[in-house]
Write a structure and sequence with these properties.
This protein is an alpha/beta fold. Helix content is 53%, strand content 12%.
Length: 524
């Protein structure tokens, strides 16, 4: 009696737990009993047939080529292959004399008609997979554009079902926040941070310590700062899930990760470590503890800056922060002024976008008329294709211009909100913050910290420097102009974005255009 293999397959391991494999096997056994076929070995697989290189399927084909059986019985064509390469491999076996039977399809693969029917069904199965992939991709990107993450929740979040944003894990989210703050402070390497997180209770699903590689991926994931980034395509989307950390903290961590050459543990966690610079030689001041006080010294012997005391620098910084601190009412007023400024800017944006939309509609109308002229025979094919290409290029340029309108404004609004968050009770928050958080705030507020003699001069980033200047107004209330100054800075930043947009628009207009086509009768 001839011997045959039996091949059964489901797409996923979860499907394999059901009755699909059992039903396939029963149908093949009935077919074999009816045709007096002897089944000597079963090949069972839990993997999609759309994917090439299935190990069990490949092993079975190898054994068939070696003549270990005269043929194989499969439940249906789509159980064997849903990609044309695997179907071609089966076809080669059939051509070499191997018998391939399908229990649910009465097909004679040795006849021309039966082989053609099988080929058609295989092509339909492959097309079904292509369509399924496309529809899945549309749904996947649809969720991403809504700000939803359709995959499993990262560490620190909980899944809340389809169509819902991820929720914070009350146990792990604080540990994730600690990981970012600790690494950004420079007091931990990946190895020491992994140990500390394990001590605090953050573990893998199997209860083990998070490795350095996994911890690096975690710290590089912008999801914790409110941004969804796809690992394969690097595309980003704004998420609606609650943030664990602020964007500025994520950027600080990235700066540490990218600039770190070797891992080393800091022996001393001085407040102004590597933050103060000598005004003469531009080298960093080195901290040391003498007689219960911390001093920062320049190591260049010829420099006049011998040392500055940490408590004196901190007191000087405290006075500086008091000068730019806002009250609750001033914060509210500033938010209202910035909101009005943003509304005006968005109104201008809508005007620009509507103007571009009109241009796009005009180009699309010209394309429709061009197609009508070609269909009516009023335009030769060569001229039609040439003009259609020019219109498509023009349309792509307009779509690019529309997308660029308002670019950068959401990030600018987030930056303004962060500035207001810093300005409210700034000095109080700085005094209560741990040293690592103080250093992060200092880097975010100041662009330069130079020591000359016994004093340190702090240069603030804008708009903090502009707010500091208003403190020294000699006539009138020194706090009166603060919200207005902040709003003027915000208007200036919007003006910069608008200038960049106009510059891009001018550059786009100056790009070389394709030459016009030859004049034709009834030209569009």
């Amino acid at each position: 009696m001839k011997t045959y293999f039996g091949y059964i397959r489901v797409s996923t391991a979860k499907q394999g737990e059901g009755v699909s494999l059992i039903e396939q096997k029963a149908a093949i056994e009935r077919y074999a009993q009816k045709g007096s076929l002897s089944l000597i070995e079963w090949f069972e697989e839990r993997e999609t047939a759309a994917k090439r290189g299935r190990p069990v399927f490949s092993q079975m084909l190898t054994l068939l080529r070696r003549g270990k059986a005269v043929g194989v019985v499969i439940h249906k064509i789509d159980r064997s292959a849903r990609n044309l390469k695997d179907w071609a491999d089966l076809g080669e076996l059939i051509d070499s004399g191997v018998e391939v039977h399908f229990a649910a399809d009465a097909l004679d693969l040795n006849s021309r008609g039966g082989r053609l029917s099988a080929d058609i069904q295989a092509v339909v199965a492959a097309d079904y997979i292509r369509n399924l992939r496309e529809e899945t991709r549309k749904g996947f990107y649809g969720r991403l554009k809504q700000g939803l993450y359709p995959l499993g929740a990262p560490t620190g979040y909980l899944d809340c079902g389809g169509g819902n944003a991820k929720a914070l894990d009350p146990e792990r989210a604080p540990l994730i926040r600690f990981a970012f703050e600790a690494y950004a402070s420079g007091t931990h390497t990946l190895a020491t941070l992994s140990t500390e997180l394990f001590r605090r209770g953050l573990r893998t699903r199997s209860g083990k310590r998070i490795g350095r590689s996994s911890l690096s991926k975690l710290l590089n994931n912008p999801f914790y700062a409110g941004v969804i980034r796809l690992r394969t395509t690097r595309e980003t989307f704004v998420g609606i899930h609650p943030r664990i950390i602020a964007p500025w903290l994520f950027e600080a961590v990235q700066a540490r990760l990218q600039g770190k050459l070797v891992d080393r543990v800091q022996r001393h966690d001085f407040l102004f470590r590597r933050l103060l610079q000598c005004a003469t030689c531009a080298f960093s001041l080195i901290g040391s503890r003498k007689k219960g006080r911390v001093y920062y010294r320049c190591q260049t012997r010829t420099c006049p800056t011998t040392s500055v005391r940490e408590d004196a620098v901190e007191e000087q910084l405290s006075h500086l922060l008091e000068a730019i601190e806002f009250s609750h009412d001033e914060i509210r007023e500033a938010r209202e002024m910035i909101s009005r400024t943003m509304q005006d800017a968005m109104s201008d944006t809508r005007v620009h976008q509507e103007a571009v939309d009109l241009q796009i509609s005009g180009v699309q109308a010209r394309a429709d008329r061009l197609t009508d002229a070609f269909v009516d025979g009023a335009l030769p094919k060569e001229a039609y294709l040439e003009r259609r290409e020019r219109l498509q290029l023009e349309l792509a340029s307009l779509e690019e211009a529309k997308q660029e309108i308002g670019d950068g404004w959401p990030e600018l609004r987030r930056r303004a909100d962060r500035i207001l968050e810093l300005l409210e009770r700034l000095n109080y928050a700085f005094e209560l913050a741990p040293p690592a958080k103080k250093r992060l705030l200092l880097e975010e507020l100041t662009s330069n910290r130079t020591a000359r003699g016994k004093n340190v001069v702090f240069t603030l980033w804008n708009p903090f420097q502009a707010l500091l200047n208003t403190h020294f107004v000699h006539s009138g209330d020194p706090h009166r102009d603060k919200p207005r100054t902040l709003a003027l800075w915000y208007q200036g930043e919007i003006a910069k974005l608008e200038a960049e947009r106009r510059k891009r628009e001018e550059e786009r207009k100056q790009r070389p255009q394709p030459p016009p086509g030859p004049p034709q009768r009834n030209a569009i």
